[in-house]
């Protein structure tokens, strides 16, 4: 480790050879290329403090910003230039402390200890100052250059509060800059503080006299042992708190360990308090005193408004009905008259307008039959049939982002805590499960916020049944053809089926969870706020960009390959009847398996196999395979080759079978067990086939077809 852990053993030996350890460390840093105009900055703060929003503002990144804990699961990095200085910023997971209790805390602490961080920006929620400053006290102990970014300072007025940030700066001994990450206020001043920051050694006195004296003795024991790094004060505190990871890393002699234990026991006896609790008590005592001197509170209208809304939205009787009503409203707007109108307009423009125009254009220049078929029936028809669903995707993610930015999504996680506990999970599992409705890839990564490995594995098994947005074109196509008058109800039932199968899977994997093993769900409910157009744009833009990139790469490539395989036979002669093609030969081998599900047509089977590449490929493949020379639309062709029963069965299979290759890759990495991964794939395929067959036979009795 760079300065604290990894180099401790080296510094213990080398420090003896250098009379001035500080000079030695500085020279060592110069050799490693750290220059005055090149800064490595770590962005650290509590969840919901606006950390990711600040990162976006500083770097121009389009990273997703959320209101639930654990959204920043992986380290994010960005670069900027300020007054000639090159600044590299790492956005670290949101944490409440630097104690290694959760996955996020381990990532953040390891980064701060292992990397050559020049300056730490600690983002603090000014409207919740005391709770946020608890982390600040721990960052101060690292003895690294620190700048406190006092975020949401502009909201204090609405909460009828005043905060003396200059007095806070004086008391903490580090630069304090009031900012608004949401509005981009005072960010220049913040960067000035980063660039001009010095190695401040005058820090706040947090602990009482007895504890401070004990810590000084522990520090001296470490220095005598040969640890001469500037992190010695922080190491002393961690050893006082019985931090096993630090104790293991330092590999101290028995003599030093005995000296440290002597001091810990001495304080514990004199204070009649456990040493771990003692440090926390003294930190909060200091923060309470500090806040009294810098904060003036009046009547808080904003808090009253939040409490009023929560009394309705979190009401024990209204919470669930309102939650499902909001979801139903989202589906109605997305798949109802508004979404359908825009989808049909784009489909008509691309598949009919552009497709026919391209055919006329190619005819004019005497293009060959195969090239006309490739461009119109392969590329335009294949990709266009998927791109036509873009308006509905934009609507869906805009509405979900509105809920997220407003603060309601955190409430949804809170609401779902109780039902998830019945499955042996906490409300925190709702975060990756909800992300699964967007894409299974980040959802699988999001399971890292779960502390227990078995909870993580169970949640991963559940995620693919949360129907991702890539499957939406499949449902929209079949529902518009067979259930046009009941679109909203049909799409709601599809999503509900996925949720019910997910719950069934969780019960299957639950085993025996004892009461005292029930996971504890601790999270902060942020205040309600009006979403900004900028953040809303970034949220939706990211999803749309991913969709269009996939359409421009994977779908075009898949469409060309599918067109080729269904247009030529094994002798590479172009066929007029696709049933004589290469693809039809392979399709007929697997089609009998799906005959029990009602769609034993080889074209339907091949479409599902192509969906493993990307779920959007299902519709683009069908557009190619079912295409006709008379210009009949895909909707009309589906009506000919499917019934209501087989359509229901096909949608259910598409909902439940294995996710795309990208998702499978992420899931395999997170499961970290090859046997479980293959079992996972087999389970999904068998379950999808079995439920699809049941749905087909059950719906036949209802629809008589």
How are the elements arranged and paired?
Layout: H1 8-17, H2 21-31, E1 38-45, H3 51-59, E2 76-82, E3 85-91, H4 103-114, E4 119-125, H5 129-140, E5 146-151, E6 161-163, H6 165-172, E7 176-178, H7 187-195, H8 209-225, H9 232-240, H10 244-250, H11 254-271, H12 275-294, E8 295-297, H13 301-313, H14 319-335, H15 337-364, H16 369-387, H17 390-406, H18 408-415, H19 417-421, H20 430-435, H21 440-446, H22 453-462, H23 472-482, H24 487-510, H25 533-567, H26 582-594, H27 602-610, H28 617-625, H29 634-641, H30 644-656, H31 661-671, H32 674-703
Helix pairs in contact: 5-12, 8-9, 8-11, 14-15, 14-17, 14-24, 15-16, 15-17, 16-25, 16-28, 17-25, 21-31, 22-24, 23-24, 23-29, 23-30, 24-30, 25-28, 26-27, 27-28, 30-32
Could you describe the 3D structure shown?
Helices cover 62% and strands 6% of the residues. The protein is an alpha/beta fold and 705 residues long. The chain folds into 2 domains: 35-195, Rossmann fold (3-Layer(aba) Sandwich), CATH 3.40.50.300; 321-508 and 532-703, no CATH class. Helix 24 crosses helix 30. Mean pLDDT is 77; it is low at 1-35, 62-73 and 512-517.
Global Rg: 30 Å
Q: How does the major sheet shape up?
A: 6 strands, mixed
- Low-pLDDT stretches are 1-35, 62-73, 512-517
Distance between the termini: 68 Å
**Using DSSP, what is the number of strands?**
8
In which order are the strands of the major sheet placed? 2-3-1-4-5-7
Strand content: 5-15%
Q: What's the tally of helices?
A: 32
Please tell me the total number of domains: 2
Secondary-structure-based class equals alpha/beta
């Amino acid at each position: 480790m760079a300065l604290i852990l990894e180099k401790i053993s080296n510094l213990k030996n080398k420090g003896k050879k250098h009379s001035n350890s500080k000079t030695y460390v500085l020279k060592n840093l110069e050799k490693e290329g750290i220059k005055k105009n090149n800064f490595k900055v770590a962005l650290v703060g509590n969840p919901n403090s606006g950390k990711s929003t600040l990162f976006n503002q500083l770097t121009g990144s389009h990273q997703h910003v959320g209101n639930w804990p654990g959204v920043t699961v992986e380290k994010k990095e960005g670069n900027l230039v300020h007054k000639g200085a090159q600044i590299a910023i790492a956005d670290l997971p949101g944490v409440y402390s630097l104690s290694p209790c959760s996955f996020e805390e381990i990532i953040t602490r390891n980064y701060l200890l292992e990397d050559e961080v020049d300056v730490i920006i600690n983002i603090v929620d000014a409207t919740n100052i005391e709770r946020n400053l608890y982390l600040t006290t721990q960052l101060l102990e690292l003895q690294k250059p620190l700048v406190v970014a006092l975020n949401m300072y502009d909201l204090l007025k609405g909460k009828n509060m005043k905060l003396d940030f200059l007095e806070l700066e004086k008391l903490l001994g580090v630069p304090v800059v009031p900012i608004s990450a949401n509005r981009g206020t005072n960010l220049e001043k913040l960067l000035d503080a980063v660039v001009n920051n010095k190695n401040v050694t005058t820090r706040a006195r947090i602990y009482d006299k007895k504890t401070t004296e004990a810590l000084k003795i522990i520090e001296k024991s470490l220095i005598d042992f040969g640890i001469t790094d500037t992190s010695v004060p922080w190491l002393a505190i961690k050893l006082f708190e019985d931090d096993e990871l630090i104790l293991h890393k330092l590999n101290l002699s028995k003599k030093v360990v005995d000296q440290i234990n002597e001091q810990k026991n001495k304080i514990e006896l004199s204070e009649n308090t456990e040493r771990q609790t003692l440090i926390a008590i003294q930190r909060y005592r200091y923060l309470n005193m500090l806040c009294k001197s810098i904060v003036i509170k009046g009547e808080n209208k904003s808090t009253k408004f939040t409490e009023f809304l929560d009394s309705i939205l979190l009401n024990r009787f209204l919470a669930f009905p309102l939650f499902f009503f909001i979801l139903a409203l989202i589906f109605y707007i997305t798949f109802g008259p508004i979404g359908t109108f825009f989808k049909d307009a784009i489909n008509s423009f691309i598949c009919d307008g552009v497709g026919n125009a391209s055919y006329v254009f190619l005819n004019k220049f005497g293009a060959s039959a195969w090239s006309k078929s490739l461009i119109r029936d392969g590329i335009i028809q294949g990709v266009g049939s998927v791109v036509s669903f873009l308006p509905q995707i934009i609507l869906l993610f805009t509405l979900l982002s509105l809920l997220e930015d407003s603060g309601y999504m955190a409430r949804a996680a809170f609401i779902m805590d109780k039902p998830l506990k019945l499955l042996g999970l906490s409300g925190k599992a709702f975060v990756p499960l909800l992300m699964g409705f967007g894409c299974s890839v980040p959802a699988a990564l999001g399971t890292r916020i779960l502390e227990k490995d078995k909870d993580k594995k169970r949640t991963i098994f559940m995620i693919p049944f949360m129907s991702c947005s890539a499957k939406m074109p499949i449902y929209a196509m079949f529902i518009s053809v067979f259930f046009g008058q009941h679109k909203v109800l049909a799409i709601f039932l599809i999503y509900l089926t996925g949720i019910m199968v997910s719950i069934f899977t969780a019960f299957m994997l639950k085993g025996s969870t004892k009461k005292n093993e029930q996971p504890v769900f601790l999270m902060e409910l942020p205040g309600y706020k009006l979403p900004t157009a900028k953040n809303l744009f970034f949220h939706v833009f990211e999803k749309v960009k991913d969709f269009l990139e996939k359409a421009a790469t994977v779908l075009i490539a898949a469409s060309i390959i599918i067109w080729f395989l269904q247009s030529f036979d094994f002798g590479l002669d172009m066929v007029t009847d696709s049933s004589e093609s290469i693809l039809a030969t392979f399709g007929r081998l697997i089609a009998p398996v799906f005959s029990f599900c009602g769609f034993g047509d080889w074209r339907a089977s091949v479409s599902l196999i192509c969906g493993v590449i990307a779920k959007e490929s299902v519709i683009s493949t069908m557009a190619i395979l079912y295409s006709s020379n008379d210009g009949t639309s895909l909707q009309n062709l589906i009506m000919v080759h499917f019934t209501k029963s087989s359509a229901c069965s096909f949608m259910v299979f598409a909902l439940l079978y294995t996710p795309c290759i990208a998702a499978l890759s992420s899931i395999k990495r997170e499961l970290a067990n090859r046997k479980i991964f293959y079992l996972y794939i087999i389970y999904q395929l068998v379950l999808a086939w079995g439920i699809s067959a049941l749905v087909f036979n059950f719906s036949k009795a209802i629809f008589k077809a």
